Amino acid sequence: MLESSANDQTGKPMRQLIRYALVGVASNAVIYIVYLFMTCFGVEPKTAMTLVYIIGASIGFIGNRKWTFAHRGDSFSAVLRYMLAHLSGYLLNYLILFTFVDRLGYAHQWVQAVAIMIVAGFLFIVFKYFVFRETI
Questions:
Q1: Model confidence over 65-107: pLDDT tens digits?
Q2: What are phi and psi of 38, to 5 degrees?
Q3: CA of 50: how far to CAs of 54, 108, 119, in Å?
Q4: Alpha helices, H only, the chain
Q5: Residues 87 and 130 sit within 8 Å (Cβ to Cβ)
Q6: Distances from the Cα of 20 to the Cαs of 2, 55, 79, 113, in angstroms?
Q7: Is there a contact between 56 and 69 (Cβ–Cβ < 8 Å)?
Q8: Burial (CB count <10 Å: 0-12, 13-18, 19+), residue 60
Q9: Global confidence as pTM
């Protein structure tokens, strides 16, 4: 019995990463299409990113709390930590767009696509060890 419990714990981070990726790919694909749609109709890239970021973060809380990390801790505290994590992720995304689009002149479509992956990796770590950390 102890052996299966130990195996469960070693496989848990990989299961969380896979679930996080599934939630993220599905939601970010939709959000990215909305981002492209908005920018095609003249919305400035950082403004579009801000709007879709808020929508994506709101949707992601439930999926990540319940399914990805199976968090059973205090939901109010988790929401506050989640908001702080996403504020950090948002600022990172904004800085990437500002640097590579506004300063270096790269196409916003490609920069935002890469930024999604960078911010997603950053947020997985923050969610796992800060937002939805396991309580002992």
A1: 888 998 998 999 999 999 999 999 999 999 999 999 999 999 9
A2: -65, -45
A3: 6, 14, 14
A4: 2-40, 45-62, 75-97, 108-126
A5: no
A6: 27, 17, 17, 18
A7: no
A8: buried
A9: 0.79
